Amino acid sequence: MGVDYYNCGVCGEIFTDCGPYEICTKCESFICGWCLEDTQEKYGTGNPPEGEEGYYGEDAPDGCSNCDPEIVTDAAINKYLFKQSGKTKEELTAEILRLRKSSQ
């Protein structure tokens, strides 16, 4: 039996499956134990999609900041900016490294 590692859909931190965590019933993002209580309070719990009740824990949140249409995550901003730049990952990496060297 091994340990699995997940990224929290709320805070982005990596966590193991050894501690408390749940899966958002709306977007299926993993929610770490540190973010779980606040997420449950904000979005509620106990309403998984019909027919999938056994897949989610009874304390699974019914939403999270990852799927809330009113919240824009850092990942969404980065994805948007990357697309708007029109540059490849390699071009952006080279530019960032060049800027780091020139600021030293």
Key terms for this structure?
104 residues; alpha+beta; two-stranded antiparallel ribbon; 3 helices; 4 strands; 36% helix; elongated
- Note the gap between the termini: 47 Å
Question: Which percent band covers the strand fraction?
Answer: 5-15%
Output the structural class.
Answer: alpha+beta
What's the β-strand tally?
4
Instruction: Let me know the largest β-sheet.
Output: 2 strands, antiparallel
Order of helices and strands: EEEEHHH
Q: Quick one: overall form?
A: elongated
Average residue-wise pLDDT: 89
Strand order of the largest sheet: 1-2
What do these coordinates show?
By secondary structure, the chain is of the alpha+beta class. Helix content is 36%, strand content 12%. The chain has a two-stranded antiparallel sheet. The protein has a two-stranded antiparallel sheet with strand order 3-4. A hairpin with a 6-residue loop joins strand 3 and strand 4. The longest helix is centred in the last third of the chain and has 14 residues, at 89-102. The chain is elongated and about 55 Å long.
